[in-house]
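Suppose a colleague, Dr. K., hands you the sequence of a protein chain of 144 amino acids and asks what its three-dimensional shape might be. Before reaching for any lab equipment, you can write down a predicted structure in C-alpha cell form. Begin with the sequence itself:
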Amino acid sequence: MVEVEKQRRIKCMEIKDNYKKIKTFRDLIAWQEGHSFVLMIYETTKDFPREEVFGLTSQLRRAIVSCTSNVAEGFSRLTPNDKAHFYTMALGSLTEVQSQLEIAKDIGYIEINNYNELELKAIKIHKVLNGLIKGTRFKKFLNS
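The predicted structure, expressed as C-alpha cells, is then:
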C-alpha cells in the first residue's frame, strides 16, 4: 500500500512539472498538433481545383486556422470558464474541418490515402482538445 501511494505522489509531481513547463500557447500539444495540421491542410488544398479557391479551399483553411487561433486565445484567458470556452470553439472548428474533408474526399478532391492520414490527425487533435477542455474544467473544480 505504501508503494502505491509513493507511485501516485511521483506521478502527481511529474504532472505538476509538465504543467509548469507550459509557458506559452506554443507549448500546448493541442496547438502544436493543430499547427502541424494547418500545414497539412494548406498542402492538401493547393491541389484543389481553381474554382474552389473561394469555396472549399478557403473554408478548410479558415476553419483549421480558427482551430489553432482559438487554442492560442484560450491559453491567454484568465478564468477556466473562458479557457474552456475557447478550447471548445477550437473543437468546433476542428469538427468543421473533418466535415469538409469528408466532402472533399467524396467529390474526388482528396485521394483516400491522403484523407485517411488527415482524418487520423484530426482524431488525434480531437482527443487532445477534449483532454485540454476536461483538464481546464477539472482545474476550475479544484479551485472552487
